[in-house]
Prior knowledge:
signal, LPS_assembly_LptE
Amino acid sequence: xxxxxxxxxxxxxxxxxxxxxxxxxxxxxxxxxxxxxxxxxxxxxxxxxxxxxxxxxxxxxxxxxxxxxxxxxxxxxxxxxxxxxxxxxxxxxxxxxxxxxxxxxxxxxxxxxxxxxxxxxxxxxxxxxxxxxxxxxxxxxxxxxxxxxxxxxxxxxxxx
Length: 160
């Protein structure tokens, strides 16, 4: 009984503190979104890309003075190359590609695609390999977000 009461109190406190689940959908809350709303992108890498896009777009885009929605399709692939004599991999590449469309309230649309390729040095330890893949995915999504935002800036400047 005591544990049930403690669990209930903890749940109530957690609900009031602004806690947000890591993979909560966009309807959970709209906190932190400015003029540009970034739609959800599936998967862990999609979550990382969306987070980086929100950071990059927090200051807005030049010449954009109205609300806009950014939709991004993400593809990620791990390519292993150069097998050694013992059958192990000596090098891997994480390839990421995104197609994006920014649609303004007035109906204007700006779209494009961006690509990244992140090299990964293979390790002999399976745990080291997983850590290297995770780090390269994070780095790849940061670079992909920068490329998307840079492309949108160029398109918006050209449209003015």
